[in-house]
Amino acid sequence: MKKTLICIAAICAMSIGHSIAAVSFGGTALSGNFSGILASGDRGILVNSDDGESFTVFNGTLNSGISLTSISSAPTNGTTLSVGGSNFTIFGNNTASVLGLSGAANFNIASSTPSNSAITVGDSFAYVVFENSTTSTIAGDTFRIWRASNWTIPADGSSNTFGTFATQITTANQASNLIGTYQVVPEPSTYALLAVGAVGLFLSFRRRKVQA
Questions:
Q1: Most buried one in 48, 63, 65, 98, CB count within 10 A?
Q2: What residue numbers bound the domain in which 166 lies?
Q3: pTM for this one?
């Protein structure tokens, strides 16, 4: 699949009503010709680290079958994601195109009222981009995690633009802000089925050997 110029934009519209405030992101988070890495159609999700855990925990622990599109209509408290024993929240998702990545991703933080969000001011967040997974994670799919050092959740009710409040990742700095390239692993039930199948084959082989 030919990789093309792509912009990953994190757009979170601000929503202010009676006793409600939401954080607003705008602009382009990842922008540039990431040759051989990004392509039109790739799914990108914004993920918050609820426990302060490093995003490297995704290596070898992100299971298949996880929904990438289950975020409620705005303003949302996000979708909880458990990875490697730590808690994360998906608070935005978009699909890349040649012209860029667009789409609303409105989210509350814990101080919003009403809110059951696990996201708090100062939390670290990252952009996770999948090569083939679109609606849910696919076993064996390659995904990459990008995060600049100043990608942290700002004050509730604030309006923010990448390149101003936080670093915009481009072709010039993408290597230093790429946390890692990983693969989605089969969910535990898949491993169990494979184990049962292997035992069955072994017993069948042993039975035939005894009969011979």
A1: 48
A2: 6-187
A3: 0.80
